[in-house]
Amino acid sequence: MAQGAPSWFSLGVRHALGIATLVTTVTTAAAGLSGARGTTHDTAASIGVGPHLGPAALRFGRSVGSPTAGHLIGGAHLDETSYLRVEPADAEGDVRWGLEPLVAMLDRAARAVDRQFPGAVTTFGHLSRHGGGDVERHRSHESGRDADVGFFVRSALSSGAHQVFAPHFVAFRADGTAPTWPGAYFDDAKNWAFIAALVSDPEARVTHVFVAAPLRARLLAHAEQMGAPLALRIRAAQVMRQPHGALPHDDHFHVRIACPAQMAGCVENPEPPARAAGAAAGSTGRALGPRGAEHAAGRRS
Questions:
Q1: Would you state the pLDDT for residue 244?
Q2: What is the structure's pLDDT at 270?
Q3: Engineering a disulfide at 216: which of 11, 28, 194, 240 sits with its beta carbon 3.0 to 4.6 angstroms away?
Q4: How many angstroms separate the most distant Cα atoms in the chain?
Q5: In a domain, 290, yes or no
Q6: Confidence class of residue 46 from pLDDT cuts 50, 70 and 90?
Q7: In the chain, how many domains are there?
Q8: Quick check: 113 and 124 in contact, CB under 8 A?
């Protein structure tokens, strides 16, 4: 697909359909909860949306609750283009929905890398499900503000910075090599270009980029070596971090954005594990199994 209008036309159509679905979803929910037909106003009150969704919700869709205990209303879909690809291992289930600011930011960042390195393709994995909620193998990704993005990888065997791809996320060591992928090398230049685009985005505000500490150090060292502005490096250092109580994120970036301004019901910080697990159990009326345990071993954040 050529760069330009087609991808944004697709995004716009899907987002418009999502917003239209928001009203339908709210109305349907009200009927189900009250046992009778009701107005959108009555529906909103019955499910805690409130009589007025507010400008942020109408423009962006709505993130309800926290990243670890929430859901998504009226989300936008992240589509494949010439500069965006889905990681094959995460393609099943269409977990590629998010708030419009997140989806648009990822598209802008991917375009920025492609402009700087023509032909570069950004790989993305899971965002949120349509409607949000629990995503298998994840502790978060429930409310439309999280996205997994694969590292840019180059071939260490070629003379140039030839990009190579794997069917799944691959872990990298501090020296930039991959123990399970001989000849592959962590592409400092492209990965830094992507991070720089995220943290300087004019619309969405990134709060976290979860990544393993040794790779964070590589990126900041590369940025300093290439003369990146100090303010940009400080901002990147603030948002990049290795998570606690989860996998180290040595095989992908986990990106999270802030709640948009004036979005009522959006909870900025994740619920503590015990509280999030209890809320999820209460919403289904049953105890959580292994899939719902918020700190199960081996789950991504």
A1: 84
A2: 80
A3: 240
A4: 68
A5: no
A6: very low
A7: 1
A8: no
98/217 Cα distance (integer angstroms): 29
Helix extents (H) in the chain: 5-34, 40-46, 54-60, 100-116, 188-199, 213-225, 230-239, 273-284
CA dihedral 244, 245, 246, 252 (to 10 degrees): 0
The answer to whether position 67 is within a domain reads: no
Give the pLDDT confidence of 235-244 residue by residue, as tens digits.
999 999 998 8
State how far the Cα of 190 lies from the Cα of 221, in Å rounded to an integer. Answer: 14
All residues at 6 or more sequence positions from 213 whose CB lies less than 8 Å from its CB, including other chains: 241, 242, 248
What confidence score (pLDDT) does residue 61 get? 85
Long-range contacts of 294-297 (CB under 8 A, 24+ apart): 294/68, 294/139, 295/139, 295/245
Domain that holds residue 130: 72-279
Looking at the whole model, is its pTM more than 0.85?
no
Task: Please check whether residue 137 lies inside any domain of the structure.
Answer: yes
- Radius of gyration, alpha carbons of the chain: 20
Residue 294 lies in a domain: no
| Eight-class DSSP state of 128 | B
Q: Please check the confidence at residue 153 and state whether its pLDDT lies above 70.
A: yes
Residue 203 tokens, joined: 């619309």
Distances (CA, A) of 198 to 42, 171, 266: 39, 22, 21
Element (H, E) at 207: strand 206-210
Partners of 64 in the β-ladder: 71
| Cα end-to-end distance, the chain, whole Å | 32
Q: 294-298: list long-range contacts, CB under 8 Å, 24+ apart.
A: 294/68, 294/139, 295/139, 295/245, 298/137, 298/247
Q: What is the pLDDT of residues 80-109, one digit of tens each?
A: 999 999 999 989 999 999 999 999 999 999
* Whole-number Å distance between alpha carbons of 102 and 203: 9
8-38 tens-digit pLDDT: 334 443 444 444 444 333 333 333 323 332 3
What does the pLDDT read at residue 160?
65
Place of tokens 């910080």: 269
* Coil, helix or strand at residue 282: helix
